[in-house]
Design goal:
Structural class: mainly beta
Strand order of the largest sheet: 1-2-3-6-7-8-9-12-13-15-16-17
CATH architecture of the largest domain: Beta Barrel
CATH topology of the largest domain: Porin
Number of strands: 17
Low-confidence stretches: 1-26
Number of helices: 2
CATH superfamily of the largest domain: monomeric porin ompg
Shape: globular
Strand content: 35-45%
Distance between the termini: 49 Å
Number of domains: 2
Radius of gyration: 23 Å
Largest sheet: 12 strands, antiparallel, barrel
């Protein structure tokens, strides 16, 4: 009996000694920005730039509703489903299928509002990329990505290469993100983006930026802006979008969000096809739901 009691006491002391080491290891992994499905952060500003190993996320722009105005854009009110699928191959490398919706580009995704409301095709455009986190943890995070995307399916199939570099500066409840990326046309360079033969703009620079504020553990508010412009005639056609939005984490597996986005608040009024597009006329409401498994 005494021997049994000694074994119980000895085992308890060993477990007590080992348990803090396990906790320290877990805390150290979190400090280094290494997360799993189980401890994925609720706070958006604390999440890694790439998904945890084995984690899949269905997100993107769940629903985009055009509410544009102006004479030119009266019929430019597409309603699109533009989901995105991401999968973490490791804690640093993820792959993704995307639907980009940059200014000047034909809308990409499943367009459900018909041709009379800005849908060139029922389904238009798909991209694929890989993203690698160059750093993890700390207040400065950096990732690089590259891939391909179909600039459009209709009227002619266009395809280009994409590359980007994302950097996030974080301090307390605030994070600032810059995501400069480029589109380099490969197929249909002579008619991209809107079929202006002899006046094409096949190569583009995009610099979206966000300021995020983590209001509490679950709610995050943000402002977004940036620069969209072709490399050719950049000074004549650049646009500066702006938006305001929020994201709410229902749990660490599901988020919901809402954004009001304006395609151009301070850039040029003329599109690359020569059409006059008034500032503040191109407006979109974006609803987002992200589910991670």
């Amino acid at each position: 009996m005494r021997l049994f009691a000694r074994l119980i006491v000895t085992s308890s002391l060993c477990l007590a000694a080992v348990q803090p080491a396990w906790a320290d290891d877990g805390d150290e992994m979190v400090a280094q920005g290494v997360y799993t499905k189980d401890n994925w952060p609720l706070e958006v500003v604390n999440r890694p730039l790439t998904l945890a190993a084995g984690m899949a996320e269905i997100g993107g722009d769940t629903l985009r509703i055009g509410i544009s105005g102006g004479d030119l854009l009266d019929a430019w009110e597409p309603i699109l489903l533009a989901p995105e699928l991401r999968y973490g191959l490791s804690g640093q490398l993820q792959i993704a299928l995307t639907h980009t919706n940059h200014t000047f580009f034909p809308p990409e995704g499943f367009c459900v509002s018909g041709e009379d409301n800005g849908c060139p095709k029922g389904y238009n455009g798909l991209g694929a990329n890989a993203e690698y986190a160059l750093t993890r943890g700390g207040n400065v995070n950096l990732s690089a990505r590259g891939g391909i995307t179909t600039g459009r399916f209709d009227p002619d199939f266009a395809l280009g290469l994409t590359a980007g570099l994302k950097i996030r500066f974080r301090g307390g409840k605030i994070a600032v993100i810059f995501d400069p990326n480029v589109y380099i046309g490969v197929i249909e360079r002579d008619t991209f983006p809107i079929g202006m033969e002899g006046n094409t703009h096949p190569d583009w620079l995009f610099i979206p930026a966000w300021i995020q504020y983590q209001f509490n553990t679950q709610a995050m508010f943000y402002l977004t802006s940036g620069l969209n412009a072709p490399f050719k005639d950049m000074g004549d056609f650049y646009q500066i979008p702006a938006g305001i939005g929020t994201s709410y984490a229902l749990n660490n597996r599901m988020d919901a969000g809402l954004e009001l986005n304006i395609g151009n608040v301070a850039g040029k009024d003329i599109g690359p096809d020569g059409a006059q597009i008034g500032k503040f006329d191109e407006r979109t409401i974006i609803l987002r739901i992200a589910i991670r498994i």
